[in-house]
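re: ur msg from earlier - yeah i can do the glutathione complex, just paste it... oh wait u already did. ok heres what im feeding in:
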Amino acid sequence: MDITLYETSPSRSLRCRWTLLELGLDYESIEARPLFHSDELKLVNPMGKLPAATIDGRPLFESAAICIALADAHPEKGLIAQPGSWDRALHDQWTCFTLAELEAWLWHSAKHTFIYPEEERIAEVIAPNGQEFRKGATVMNDVLMDADHLVGGAFSVTDIIASFALNWGRRAGLTDGLDEVNGYLDRLYQRPHCQLVQPE
Ligand SMILES: N[C@@H](CCC(=O)N[C@@H](CS)C(=O)NCC(=O)O)C(=O)O
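and the outut:
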């Protein structure tokens, strides 16, 4: 595979870099921070956001979609449940859940903390967003009481996708008391290729 990853750190690009490292794939890395919203980046991601990738010359965006495409292209590595299997349905469930019930709240808070111009920020959204994140993270905490990983009893790309959002919440102080989530993240930090930024 001929892979180019447009990335910047720290950002959701780290999901893609972690997946590439777990799969042992070579890739060209383009540090794209100066390219944010440029016409050049919009050829790969019409939003001009990161991450974005080209895989064998074809553009692909959305961090989860990039990770899944890479893992699916290498079934022999066992990093993702096979399409059509029940484990794959669970993978889809946790991926959608992560993006909708965890990450969307964090991103909305980020926009109102440091992305929007100061005069457009609404401080009042931060607390309710945190509460909504906690609802989702509590569901994951319950699941992790009986499992070390989210799908199939082993590490998979599902963990890469979900843990990024959980760790983002942890760094924002939103996982206090969610011991299973914090233990899960602590275990993932031990993986040699882990790209999660640990809380200070
Ligand atoms: N859902 C997208 C989110 C992409 C995204 O918003 N990336 C941020 C960096 S983490 C970005 O490009 N921000 C610049 C902006 O929103 O203009 C994904 O997971 O790839």
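cool cool. The longest strand covers residues 3-7. ping me if u need the other ligands too
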